[in-house]
């Protein structure tokens, strides 16, 4: 059964917004791309995508008046939100990329990869990798344990509260690749580029 929930994809100039919309269209989700504050606040579900620079993305959210709209929707009205890649990183308190503060919903910092074996491990981390589920979650319901997702990132979240970690991924060392706290969800990977496993994650979010 297709959910009738209205999903708003936050338009803050990120490069993968239309890819996310196309992925939702494939299972006929009721989704729209918008930078309208009222539409975001009144959405049933929100997706915050993102590729690019942390500080510039936060500045654009501020310029558009979307930081306040997102705080109202997520912190006050408790609307479910899914951050994708940079969108997940923006949920943290800060990042090593730029001087800007993040949304501050998760006690975490986005930090840059640093590798001992620089011949084998590169930044950005690009390509397919697993995501080990660390706690029960409707977001990962029906996703095969061996499923792989597509990653493209140079930063990852260093979380303070281990209970916020939903998935972990190995790339020389272990990093948090998905988070969940109450109605706040985030994935470091790109579900819109991750074939059947990614579609399952997006559909699970829409159908919650």
Mean pLDDT figure: 95
Write down the CATH topology: Rossmann fold
How many β strands by DSSP?
13
Indicate the radius of gyration in whole angstroms: 16 Å
Q: What characterizes the major β-sheet?
A: 8 strands, mixed
Q: Distance between termini?
A: 12 Å
Class based on secondary structure composition and strand pairing: alpha/beta
Order of neighbouring strands in the sheet with most strands: 2-1-3-4-13-12-11-8
Low-confidence runs (pLDDT<50, min 5 residues)?
A: none
Helical fraction equals 25-40%
Which geometry do the CA atoms define? globular
Give the second-level CATH assignment, the architecture: 3-Layer(aba) Sandwich
Q: How many helices? A: 6
- Approximate strand percentage: 25-35%
Query: Could you state the CATH homologous superfamily?
Result: Class I glutamine amidotransferase (GATase) domain
Order of helices and strands: EHEHEHHEHEEEEEEEEEH
CATH C-level class is Alpha Beta
Number of individual domains: 1
What's the arrangement of secondary structure elements?
Layout: E1 6-10, H1 17-25, E2 30-34, H2 37-41, E3 45-48, H3 54-63, H4 66-76, E4 81-84, H5 86-89, E5 94-95, E6 108-112, E7 125-130, E8 132-133, E9 148-153, E10 155-159, E11 165-171, E12 173-181, E13 184-187, H6 195-207
Parallel strand pairs: 1-2, 1-3, 3-4, 4-13, 5-6
Antiparallel strand pairs: 6-10, 7-9, 8-11, 11-12, 12-13
Main attributes?
alpha/beta, Rossmann fold, 208 residues, 13 strands, single chain, 8-stranded mixed beta sheet, 6 helices
